[in-house]
Amino acid sequence: MNKKDAIDMIETLKKTYPDATCSLNFKTPFEIVIAVMLSAQCTDERVNKTTPELFKKYPTIEDFANCDINELEEIIHPCGFYKNKAKNAKACAQKILSDFNGIVPKTMEELTSLPGVGRKSANVILLEAFGIANGIAVDTHAKRISNKIGLSKEKEPTKIEQDLLKIFPKEYLKDVNHLFVWHGRNTCTARNPKCENCAIKKYCKTYKTKHKC
Asked: Which has the closest alpha carbon to 66: 102, 91, 98?
């Protein structure tokens, strides 16, 4: 896909999903760090039901760093993989305090040095907490859509991201991050995708192959 079509596709998606934003609830940079951590293999809806109690009990980074790990596990249990997530959340808070003076860092390299934060999570944190869009968070939706449309043939998220960064101009990266998630949830679903109702089907390699367009 050339850049013109890529931009046209994103503009079409912007009109289709004018309210597309991050669906995780948070008030501070550290809260989005924790929310993203909890969202791994868990729905944002479930995370948003869990975090109010969590952030009320542990309102500061210091509270997370000093928390009772068993109590933390109990609160985040509904989000799945709670033992590993609790361990990472506590260790992440401790590292932010010890290495970054209690301030969530603003670079990819620093963020990915935190326990439980990979490149995808760091991209989300940079965008939502600091308005920095230098990359694309390739989650399950972005991966599926990229492969179906023909934006990338890769399976590894980091390789898919590199393919997308070659196609989309930097000023559209923020939109791509949000729109792919919304499109993946509402139209280009994993099961029974609504291809006939898809606003960007004319750009889709899979659709055109099926319908010999």
From this structure: 91
Domain end position, chosen among 92, 112, 130: 130
Give catalytic residues, as residue numbers.
Answer: 120, 139
Q: What is the pLDDT of residues 100-131, one digit of tens each?
A: 999 999 999 999 999 999 999 999 999 999 99
> pTM of the predicted model, to two decimals?
0.93
Q: Please, are residues 126 and 170 in contact by the beta-carbon 8 Å criterion?
A: no
pLDDT single digits (tens) 34-60: 999 999 999 999 999 999 999 999 999
Asked if 106 and 187 sit in the same domain, the reply is no
Q: Is 80 exposed, middle or buried (0-12, 13-18, 19+ CB in 10 A)?
A: middle
The domain of 99 spans 29-130
